[in-house]
Amino acid sequence: MKNRSLWQILAFYAAASWVVLQVVDVVKDNLGLPDWVFPFAMLLLFIGLPIIVATAVVQGRHVSDGSADAASGEATESKSAPASPSELSPRRLFTWRNALVGGGLAFVLLTAVTTGFMFMRNQGIGPVGSLVAKGMLAEQAPIVLAQFESPDPSIGSAATEALRIDLSQSSVVALVDPASLTDALARMQRSADEPLTLEVAKEIAVREGYAAVITGDITAVGNGYVLTSRIVDATSGQTLASDRQSAANADEIIPAIDRLSAKMRERIGESYSELRADEPLDQVTTSSLEALQKYSEGIEIFETGGDEDVGNALLEEAVALDPGFAMAWRKLGLTRTGGWARNLEAFEKAYESRDRLTERERLHTEATYYTQVTQDDQAAITTYERLLELDPNDDWALNNLGVVYDQALGDYALAEQYYERANAVDSSNVLSFRNAARTEINQGKLDEAQASLDGIYEMFPRDEVSAGLRVSLEAVRGDYEAATSAANRLSELGSDPRVEMERTSFLAAIAATQGRLAEAEELALESARHHAASGRAQPMLGMTQFLAWIDLNVREDPDRARERLAFMMESDGFSELDPLSRNYRTVIDLLSAIGGRVETQRVIAEFEAEVPAEYRRDMEDQYLAWEGSLLAGEGRHEEAAATIERRALAGCQLCRYQPLARFYDRAGRTDSAMALYEAYVNSHADYRLWWDTNNLGPSLVRLGQLYDEQGDLENAAVYYARFVELWADADAELQPRVEEARARLEEIIRERG
To answer: Considering the entire predicted model, what is its pTM?
Structure first.
């Protein structure tokens, strides 16, 4: 070292410091150490710098002095002369050996401090101990996020939503879903749009058994803001942790929320490595506070049951302000209020911007894109499984995976398992409970479904979807009186036009199933009026199709069905609709079943011209259905049956049973026809009421006739009796068929004694 200049030593120290800091940074990230470890190491190196300089100067001067003595011939004498303590102390203190030992001790200190901090944090000792380690909060304990208090409510709402999004990235924090909070307010007999203040949030938490509440406030200070957040024990009201962050202006609020969230997550007990792995909040949401305000206001409307059109408009404003706001695009797709075309476009936009999402949101967005846009069920399953690898308790991933197995693949037993896992994770989310009840119906577990629906009513008495499922359950049982009562109970949920539309639709379906066609048509028109009042597009479209199917299959009057459908398609309301909202598929279903290849192919060509190719993916099953119907209309029943046999339809067996039974019947393949008629009339599909409107009565009487023709009077009597009971109060135009079946039933009873 004696021959090195001061500048050489400084260069060496700088290089060594750089290496040390790189090692510290790597160790910090790999071991999940706190961020202050790195600046602490820098501080120690900074303190060491003057020591190194002093050592270099002292040792350099000593070497220089020794050389001078030797040149004057006094070196030997000088060595033998005793030195004073004052002369020896700097040289003895600032030695390279002492510098190296001091450096080592400094980093022993760093290690000791870091180790002690991490030990105390992980063991819950002292002020640095995490809440999880202290036993004050359990990992993944449900926490209610209260509304931020702010002089500007829109900023408070935006801050709350931003904090919710960031906290959702945490592996230790489990925020209660907003829908569950809305349900809790309903059980407390409070309005869904009541502000979720700290007091209200604490009351919900105590009633529902949630662990804690996170609350916060925003205070304007000059041109800037001070943001404060607290974690409060739900029962005692004790503040468990708090933090404060400042924002120089409104544009800095989102980064401040990001810092606030990180401190909250750290205090709860999340690892530092996980915290560092997260993307900044403005990169996974939006950097535009205004866009975030619109988004938060919009989703609040949907969560509290407000005007969905207003909520939809706010989301549209959010994506207009920030076209790359993927989270807003995804929510816009899920709202179902902007029309099918806009929903699909929104899902595509969200998918295109998915890199601007948290990892969990990104995977949810990809899975939604696969199910809704590309209809790639296997890709959706794979994506949901990746989500569950990240978090086995992601109740939305569990529920949605169940939906894929349920609705797309028809594996009701496996779907039920996923729904039950979702229920176990979050018993406050009504969606998976509904879905579980639906799969129980589809498996024929009707008593279990009844118990499930009773349980849902206890927890969510105002849930209209589960109330509708009760109608479907009673219809599957064949108890139409009970189904009618269940439908009318929907009125107890309020006078919302959407609820009334559902109620009258159910009543129309029940009336049609029982052969009361005039009543069904009157109720269908009433439902259409409620449909229009709810702001939905083309209120008569669905009802016209409903009535046309009755004309075709119950009245057996294809000309009447054709006239009804033609009137609808020629109306201004139909032509003015966006092509994606015209429900071409159902229209073509009807046309092909009515018969007439030329007209059907004309509308298919119109459909292909008007609807972009990306919205016509996976149409093979649909084209097979149309071709099968057209072949049957041409009397080519064997070919029709062979065509329908090629359809997959894992998620809709009734879509196969009924048409195929007819084709087999007309082709003279009686045994095959009877097997499928029986499979249909004895099925337990939750959606079968809508098939029953125009199929159940004709199928029952036809089964009676087929068994009668085969000489199986016992089974003939069973199906004649079911038909007569079903259409006992049918309209006069249908009574001749009822009387014929009743007369034959009485003959069979007499013949059999």
So the answer is: 0.76
